[in-house]
Amino acid sequence: MRTWTVCFLWVWAAQSVDAMAFLKGTVGLEKARVTQEGRDVETPRRFKRGWMWKQFFLQEEYTGTDNQYIGKLHSDLDRGDGTVMYVLTGEGAGTIFVIDANSGDLHATRSLDREEKPYYSLRAQAVNKKNGIPLEPETEFIVKLHDINDNEPKFEKEVYTANVPERSHVGTSVIQVTAHDADDEMFGLSAKLVYSISQGHPYFSVESNTGIIRTALGPSDMDREQREHYQVVIEAKDMGGQRGGLTGSTTVNITLTDVNDNPPQFSQSIYQFSIPELAKAGEVVGRVRAVDADIGRNAEMVFTLTSGDGLDVFDVTTDRNTQEGILTVKKPLDYEKKKSYTLQIQVRNTHPDPRFVSVDSKDSATVRVNVEDVDEPPRFERSSYILEVKEDAAVGTAIGSVSAVDPDARDIDSRNGVISRYTIDRHTDVDRIFNVHAGNGSIFLQKPLDRENLAWHNISVIAAEFNDPQQTSRVPVYIRVLDVNDNAPTLAYLYDTFVCENYKSGQKIQTITAVDRDEPKDGHRFFFSLAPESPRANFSVRDNGDNTASIFTRRTGFRRSQKSTYLVSVVISDRDIPMQSSTSTLTIRVCTCTRDGTMELCNAEALSGSAGLSTGALVAILLCVLILLLIVVLFAALKRQKKKEPLIISKEDVRDNVVSYNDEGGGEEDTQAFDIGALRHPEAMEESNKLRRDILPSEPLYPPPPLRRATAASARDNADVRDFINQRVQEHDGSPTAPPYDSLATYAYEGNGSVAESLSSLGSASSEGAQDYNYLSEWGPRFRKLADMYGGEESDWDC
Which of 613, 566, 563, 564 has the alpha carbon at shortest distance from 585? Predict the structure, then answer.
């Protein structure tokens, strides 16, 4: 009730001040009408303004139904006779603000919000109602809105997120929250905010003026492992926190971050594992787990083996993903030697924090490992064997032996400890040079050895159990072939040695050296000498004592014209046992040289034998070969173009093709298949020994019979044609170059004195009389068709 009374008095005082805002005493200008030189003119004159104001006040958020009264505008020139009219212009004039033109009363048409616009600038003027002439100058004034507490505080975020380390001390700053009030800060306490915490006690507190949230409990109470997340509600209240103020709130989600305040601890004090004795190095025995209440980097731990009887047999590592200790085998196990192991394992943090946990904080547990018995394969006494044998060892010589035992054997008499047999893996001895005794494991030779071809042999020997042949094991055996002096030394190079014609006696012309495939322990030592069968009058060999020798001349006056080449035999021997030697021949050419010994010219034979073809010569030879190839290809192409088509290309009988002769053809001009002149003059053909043009010329195997000129007694007994045909048949049968088909061209010859004479169209033009061709039918099926064609009636040829 008291609050409403105060508000009412405050509004009444503001209205009273507005009503008394008129100030008098201001001088203005007034226009008056006077008569001047018979004319009516308006002349300005001074007047005294009757009203003036600066601002009006209006309360925001008006809730009444009528227009809200602001104040009254009045001029001293207004005598109440209705001649003065008030005009309002400016922001919101006519819409938000209206004025009574007669009385000057100013009203607001709707409720206004100061937070949207705190004031409005308006202008008012008194004018003559009849003609609209201003009676006074325009005056500007302000309508200002009075603020009321109508806006609650609002925070910048609806939800805040913050982190603070666990075990923080009291008063540690967490986060600052800020709220804003849209009310006027300069008027009253509407925008005066006070912060308070409504949810989050007793863990956190907030400063009322700043909004800073701080921890309210000590380190022992702020433990992340007990509680990690907190939700705090902060309120902001205006009016300085007094009763009746408006309130806004926000939520702050606070998370306690982890610190390394907990050491790791094993989940159990004793761990037991079992592992087969055949487990290989690196195989996992088991996993041990330790618990750390911390998270992330603070929960990283490391496991170590501190004591026990298996420190050299086992190892432990840490799985970084699961933070578990992985126990693995470090060395091979043997159930027969040791059946169990006891270990002490320790765990500690990788990154301890001395503020919360001691650096030496750790935990320990016991690990017991039992070794399980397994039927093991045979075990060789060594992991590998190295044997040696001389390369001249005889086949069947024993090189050495391997030995394996069954580790599962309990006593000497047990059959489980006997090895069934030894074998060699033939993939490692493809040539079957070695073999092994199946019972005692001795290795011996099967083929001769040669160190110079292969100095080392690597084989694998397999041992199998007696009771279980599937239980096998293998061992590598390295066999070294020892060198024996079985190779004679030879010249190291093919020397190109020459002697100049002007050389003097005792002059060195060549230095030679030797090589030996053998490898003696003390190194090579070669001896050089001149072979006994080699002439000693021309050259000598001097051993230099360093595995080299020099060739010297023993005379002067070498002449290339007398002898161009000398052969010198050199004996090369070594000092090993047995001593080996060889004789090598050195070819020495005689050359013409300059005074300083530079070779100028040697014998052609030696030069051609030693020197290769020059590049120019090789290019010339290649060009010649290419040209020859082009000529051959061109000749073959031309010959192929000129090759004549055979008269009969079908493999069928000739009689089947005679029907094509109903065409007269080209007459004597058709000479592509044969030479028709040979038919007309057989004597000339015989004299010149001409054969058919469609075959290669060759001597006939059978001499042609002498031609007999037949008389014209009878066309049926034409001996000329018969002899000619017989001659051709004999030539065809006897010639190996004849084509595999018959040429009908040669059979067109009728002979001299024939009744039918020539079949040529040119020759037939002179004898158009009737002729008898029936005799052709007696010559065989090949001529019967001709007789039918030429022996018919003339009416048969009429079209």
Answer: 566
Measured between its terminal Cα atoms, the distance across the chain in Å is 153
What digits encode the pLDDT tens for the residues 736-773?
766 665 555 444 555 555 555 555 554 444 444 556 77
How many CA atoms within 13 Å lie on the side-chain side of 167?
A: 11
**740 CA to centre of own chain:** 67
Q: At residue 503, what are phi and psi to the nearest 5 degrees?
A: -65, 150
Cβ-contact 271, 365 below 8 angstroms: yes
String of DSSP letters for 668-730: GG--SSS-THHHH-HHHHHHHT---TTS-----SSPPPPP----SS-GGG-HHHHHHHHHHHH
Lowest mean pLDDT segment, chosen from 38-52, 334-348, 494-508, 532-546: 38-52
* Closest alpha carbon to 693 in 727, 730, 737, 655: 737
Which residue reads 């017991």 in tokens?
368
Distance from C-alpha of 642 to C-alpha of 638, rounded to nearest angstrom? 6
Give Cα 785 to chain centroid, integer Å.
84
Q: How many residues does the chain have?
A: 799
Tell me the HSE value of 379 on the side-chain side, using a 13 A CA sphere.
13
Instruction: Determine the Cα–Cα distance for residues 732 and 738; give it in Å rounded to an integer.
Output: 6
- Does residue 272 sit in helix, strand or coil? strand
Phi/psi for 184 (5° steps) reads -75, 120
The pLDDT value recorded for residue 17 is: 37
What pLDDT does residue 234 have? 94
CA angle 792, 662, 685 (to 5 degrees): 100
Indicate the Cα dihedral angle 545, 550, 553, 558, nearest 10°: 170
E strand or H helix at 640: helix 615-642
State what percent of residues in the chain have pLDDT above 70.
75
105-108 sheet: strands from edge to edge: 68-72, 105-108, 97-99
How far is residue 419's CA from residue 13's CA, in Å, rounded to a whole number?
A: 126
Q: How far apart are CA 323 and CA 351, in angstroms?
A: 14
Of 564, 450, 447, the C-alpha closest to 517 is: 450
Instruction: Kindly state the DSSP code that residue 93 receives in the 8-state scheme.
Output: B
275 token code pair: 């592992």
Computed over its alpha carbons, how large is the radius of gyration of the chain?
69
SS3 for 177? coil
Q: How far is CA 66 from CA 59, 93, 154, 243, 713, in A?
A: 14, 18, 33, 32, 167
Cα separation, 311 vs 767, whole angstroms: 136
Q: Are strands 139-146 and 55-59 parallel, antiparallel or unpaired?
A: parallel
pLDDT tens string 78-100: 777 888 888 888 888 888 888 88
More confident residue, 445 or 598: 445
State pLDDT tens for residues 248-270: 999 999 999 999 888 999 999 99
Residue with structure tokens 């029907």?
659
What is each CA distance from 384 to 330, 432, 478, in whole angstroms?
Answer: 21, 20, 8
Q: What sign for the dihedral angle of Cα 221, 222, 227, 233?
A: positive
Nearest-angstrom CA–CA distance, 251 and 161:
9
Listing DSSP states for 500-563 in one string gives ETTPPTT-EEEEEEEE-S---TT---EEEEE-TTS-SSSEEEEE-SSSEEEEEE--S---TTT-
Containing 141, the helix (H) or strand (E) segment is: strand 139-146
Could you give phi then psi for residue 96, rounded to 5 degrees? -85, -40
Three-class SS state of 235 = strand
pLDDT of residue 523: 86
Q: Which of 146-160, 476-490, 641-655 has the highest mean pLDDT?
A: 476-490
Is residue 326 a contact partner of residue 362, using CB atoms and an 8 Å limit? no
- Residue 533: pLDDT band by 50, 70, 90 thresholds? confident
- Separation of alpha carbons 638 and 31, rounded Å: 135
